[in-house]
Amino acid sequence: MTNDLWQMKIPAYVDGELSSDETGAMDLHLRECAMCASDALQQMRLKQSNKLAGSRFTPSAEFRRKIAAQVAAKTAPPRRSAWRWMWSPAFAAALLVIVVVSGIFVHRSFERSRSQQLLAELTDLHVANLAASNPVEVVSTDRHTVKPWFQGKLPFSFDLPELAGTPFTLLGGRLTYLDHEPGAHLIYNVGAHHVSLFVFRDQPELAQAFAEQQSSRSVLSFHVDAWSSRGLRYFVVGDANPQSIHDLSSMLEKANQ
Amino acid sequence: MPLFDSLFNFAGWLSGNSQEAEDLVQETYLKALKGFASFQPGTNFRAWIFRILRNTFLTSRSGLQATRTVPLDDESEEVPAVAVTTATPESLLLGRAGSEEIQSAMDKLPVTYREVLLLCDVEEMSYQDISETVSIPIGTVMSRLSRARRAMREALSEKPQASHRTGAKS
After folding, report:
1. How far is A61 from chain B (nearest CA, A)?
2. Chain B window 148-167: which residues touch A at a Cβ cutoff of 8 Å?
3. Closest by CA position to A200, among listed A217, A176, A171, A173
4. Phi-psi category of A59—alpha, beta or left, where left has phi over 0 and alpha has psi -120 to 50?
5. Same domain, B143 and B108
6. Closest to A163 (Cα-Cα) out of A256, A257, A248
7. A44 touching B, CB under 8 A?
8. pLDDT at A189 over 80
9. Are both A127 and A14 inside the same structural domain?
10. Rounded to the nearest 10 degrees, what angle do helices B138-169 and A3-14 cross at?
11. Of the segments A111-115, A165-169, B10-14, B57-61, which one has the largest average pLDDT value?
């Protein structure tokens, strides 16, 4: 290898870029060639001087802290702010209240509309049967005749009160249906008015529509008393005065306690 | 913080003042944190973050000014190594040059030469790392280094000679 070729390799030698074989060969050459050795020495000296002089700019402690803080802030896991901690439970509670209140409101509205629908059906049954040529299928004033007539026709049994000494007269009874459920429809007379007694099994839908154990309502001038007892739901519907309706209801209720 | 001092020093050399170096370093760390997902593990982190700093400088006002005055030498041309002849007055004075003279000589270098010289001699990067940082081929790294060192030698050998002549007259 000529001296020029060795000299061309000196910068890479000084920068540590030669392979180990090339470095070894250069080491041997530099021992023998004074000119190349001097050249390499000068270049190494310049490199060292550059390193020393090149470390010229030093960051201030304040700048170092500033950047460290920024880096820490950027790399730290996201923190939930105090406001969020305060806000979240309050928001959740408010949302829960809104949902619960809305749910209750919707539920009650549904119940109310369902009970009104059933009461309307009952008054329709009351009116329709009275308008029929044969309002009752079993015609009897004797409760001991009317009650057994329902045997085998209904999946439940009920008692009828003794009406002796009262203004009420039993006219008879018939089968009826409410919301696809069979029930008893009995007709009483009080003064010039006819009053209907409906008895059904207290199905979940009825119980839901008439959540109250006992209620008294007016539907299109008809008075309706309703109650439940021992798995049965009773409705007394009529245009008689409310007191008469209540009196009949009380007698029926006592008879079935 | 990794490489904080090195990055600050490099930024200072590129921009020429500490204030702008602070801006460059701050922006570099923000960009590095923001784009850390783009860093491929196993690759050269030092080259990656120095490249961010360099690119930040090149798009800054002083960077754009500095790159307007690029040397017109053909970089693809191999620069023959010039032997530093033994025991010349220049080489002897070169060895005695102080930090201020060397810094002054570095300041005079075009930024494209200064950056490879700094990365090689101060940061002790390999040619490969410099190539990745500056995004130039290794051959260009070597030719820029050669030109930078030759310019340094010339600058350092001129100054002592001038002062020596002045001293002889008085």
Report:
1. 11
2. 149, 152-153
3. A176
4. beta
5. yes
6. A248
7. no
8. yes
9. no
10. 100
11. B10-14
Residue numbers in B near A53 (CB within 8 A): 99-100, 102-103, 106
A43 touches chain B (CB under 8 A): yes
Whether residues A225 and A127 share a domain: the answer is: yes
CATH of the domain at B82: 1.10.10.10
Reading chain B (170 residues) residue by residue, the pLDDT tens digits are 768 999 999 999 999 889 999 999 999 988 888 887 777 777 788 999 999 999 999 888 777 777 666 555 555 555 555 555 444 555 555 556 678 889 999 999 999 999 999 999 999 999 999 999 999 999 999 999 999 999 998 888 875 544 444 443 43
What residues of chain A lie within 8 A of the CB of B127, using their CB? 12, 15, 17
In a domain, A80, yes or no: no
Considering only CB atoms, which chain A residues are within 8 Å of B21?
A: 57, 59
Q: How far is A82 from chain B (nearest CA, A)?
A: 26
Q: Do B1 and A59 touch (CB under 8 A)?
A: no
Chain length of chain A = 257
CB contact under 8 A, B1 and A58: no
C-beta atoms of B33 and A47 within 8 A: no
**Structural domain that includes position A139:** 112-255
CB-CB neighbors (< 8 A) of A35 in chain B: 83, 85-86
Give the Cα separation of B86 and B101 in Å (integer): 21
Of B14, B49, B68, the last residue of a domain is: B68
pLDDT of residue B167: 41
CA distance B169 to chain A (A): 30
Residue A191 located in a structural domain: yes
Report the helix count and the strand count for chain B, using DSSP H and E: 9, 0
**Pair A12, A129 in one domain:** no
User: Domain check: are A27 and A140 in the same one?
Assistant: no
**Shared domain check, B121 and B51:** no
Q: How many domains does chain B have?
A: 2
Helix (H, G, I), strand (E, B) or coil at A106: helix
Given B44, B68, B92, which residue is the final one in a domain?
Answer: B68
Task: Provide the domain limits for residue B51.
Answer: 1-68
pLDDT at B163: 45
Q: What is the pLDDT of residue B162?
A: 46
What domain count does chain A have? 2
| pLDDT of A25 above 50 | yes
Contact B11, A57 (CB under 8 A): yes
Co-location of B80 and B63 in the same domain: no
* Same-domain pairing of A149 and A43: no
C-alpha dihedral sign at B159, B161, B165, B170: positive
